[in-house]
Every structure is written in C-alpha cells, then in structure tokens.
C-alpha cells in the first residue's frame, strides 16, 4: 500500500474478545483476571458491606467471557481470582471454597 508495510499482530481484539493468531484464548483469560483483580480492589476500598448479590453482579460479567476454557493454566488463573473473590463476601470468611461456591449457587 503505497510502499508501506503492513504489520502483523499476534493478538487481535474483536467485540471485546482477545484472540491469539493460533486461536487460543489465553490472552482473554489473562485480561479477565487483571480486570477482575482491579474490580476487587475497588470493591475492597469502597464497599463496606460486601453483600453477595452486589458483589457477584460486579464481578461475574468479566469472568463469563472465559466460560469455555481449554487450558488448565487458564482455569487455574480464574479459579485463583474466584477463590479470593468469594472470601471477600460477608459471612463467608471461614467457610471452605466448595461450600462458598454452593452458597453462591455457582
């Protein structure tokens, strides 16, 4: 194109979804992890009464984009943030992870 070379990108963002050139979703899961971590920090700093319904409505949309995971490392990354998230909810501090998920109907 008039002597200009086109660049090749390894990652493409389309409709809010990140895809690698080999059609893997690892970048999307990493983006969701970082976004949820920031949202959880905001929640921790600003919301005093961390009621489950409100907390889930703030975090769930960011995690749902990674629903179909193919790689163990991506699943473990999102499980890590989910464990931290469920501990933040009021009255769930001393409960096991599986019981917290059951209480939240996950």
Task: Please outline what is shown here.
The protein is mainly alpha-helical and 106 residues long. A hairpin with a 2-residue loop joins β1 and β2. The chain has one domain.
Written overview of the protein:
This protein has one domain (27-103). The termini are far apart. It is 54% helix and 8% strand. Strands 1-2 form a two-stranded antiparallel sheet. 13% of the residues are buried. It is mainly alpha-helical.
Tell me the domain tally.
Answer: 1
Overall helicity: 40-55%
Rounded radius of gyration (Å): 17 Å
* Uncertain parts: none
Return the average pLDDT rounded to an integer: 80
| Order of secondary-structure elements | EEHHHH
Give the beta-strand count.
2
From the spread of the alpha carbons, the general shape counts as: elongated
Strand line-up in the sheet with most strands: 1-2
- Total helix count? 4
The secondary structure category is mainly alpha
Main pleated-sheet profile: 2 strands, antiparallel
User: How far apart lie the N and C ends?
Assistant: 52 Å
Beta fraction: 5-15%
